[in-house]
Amino acid sequence: MIGLLFPRKGRGFTLIELLVVIAIIAVLIGLLLPAVQKVREAAARMSCQNNLKQIALANMNYESSYGTFLPGVGKNGCCWGTWMIPILPYVEQDNLFKIYVNFGGLDPLPRYTGGPNAAIASTRLKIFTCPSDTPQSWGNWTKHNYVLNAGNTTFYQVALPLGCTPGTAGCTPFGGAPFGWYCNSNLVNDSPFPYTNPPTDPSKGPMGTPQKFGDITDGTSNTMMASECLQGRTNDLRGFTWWGGAAGFTAYLAPNSPLPDVITGGICHSLTSPLMPCTTTSTPSYPRLMGARSLHTGGGVNVAMCDGSVHFVPNAIDINVWRAMSTSHGGEPVALPF
User: Fold this and answer.
1) What is the rounded average pLDDT for all residues in the chain?
2) Helix, strand, coil % (nearest 5) of the chain?
3) Which residues contact 101 (CB under 8 A, 6 or more apart)?
4) Please, are residues 93 and 124 in contact by the beta-carbon 8 Å criterion?
């Protein structure tokens, strides 16, 4: 009778039942998390491709205005401005461009270290930053993730090894590039620092010579304009694209290559995760160069072509095709992987 008047309260979960529920939730989270990560990476990759698309369009608009593509570096080399400066008005950063002083000129100090230029080099620009990487700085100065195509050999834009004769065994000829870097350098006849004296060999230099649209005889859809790099950790200067030695890439190295970048005149640290091998020692057989690198899943890098199209290139691309994609007038037949 008492039981009818005062029924017992509902039975709670046992410990075993609670553990089973927790285990089910953990399994569901485990199944869901990779899917979320894939969606997040797909969004990051798409954002990265959009950045490259904007860089490509900006460069093409620059060419419409000046009749040449952007200079890879200023005419006096590493430290008085790279392509990051003249592109600014074409990526809605005209206010920054207007305060930059003496692009390509000569000053006692590198131009990103003082005055208004230092303020520019300390600005992080979203359009130059891939969301798959972790933003890094060198002191107050920002690093970024996009680099212009300096060709198929080295930043010196000559045949490799240095001094070899194209057509001879073991000599990789330079097939041209859409952007000028340390052009025609042989490390001997260049104008010496601070670059105020003419070179002893007049055929050497000047640096950063702008290239014309019509010079890309291999075809704009077959020639790379830009790709990705990783931002160096701590004081590693890779990704410090305000500096000429880090503002470009060459296709001598395959995408995400296990072979080292050669950071002449700067600082770098080899890492295995992310994969960023490097050396600061430049030799005639393996001189100053930097490869294209990214952290995208699937193994590869995004590239923009000189016609404005953007593609994902896998790490496993044939090295000869990759190098042919980097030349502007190499004349190689190219079977594009996309």
Assistant:
1) 87
2) 30, 15, 60
3) 111, 115, 116, 117
4) no
Closest C-alpha to 305, from 55, 138, 97, 91: 55
CA 278 to chain centre: 15
Residue in the structure block whose two tokens are 């899943």: 297
Q: What is the pLDDT of residue 194?
A: 47
DSSP state of 160: B
Residue among 322, 333, 314 at smallest CA distance from 153: 322
The pLDDT score that the predictor gives to residue 35 is 55
DSSP structure string for 61-109: HHHHHHSSPPPSEETTEEEEEETTTTTGGGGT-HHHHHH---TT---SS
Q: What is the pLDDT of residues 8-66, one digit of tens each?
A: 555 666 777 777 778 778 777 777 666 556 667 778 889 999 999 999 999 999 999 99
How far is 209 from 180, CA to CA, in rounded Å? 5
| Of the candidates 105, 103, 58, the residue with the CA atom closest to the CA atom of residue 85 | 103
Q: Which residues pair with 166 in a beta bridge?
A: none
Looking at the chain, how many residues does it have? Answer: 338
Q: What is residue 1's predicted lDDT score, i.e. its pLDDT? A: 45
Distance CA 214, CA 152 (A): 19
At residue 59, the 3 state secondary structure works out as helix
Tokens at residue 228, please?
């990705």
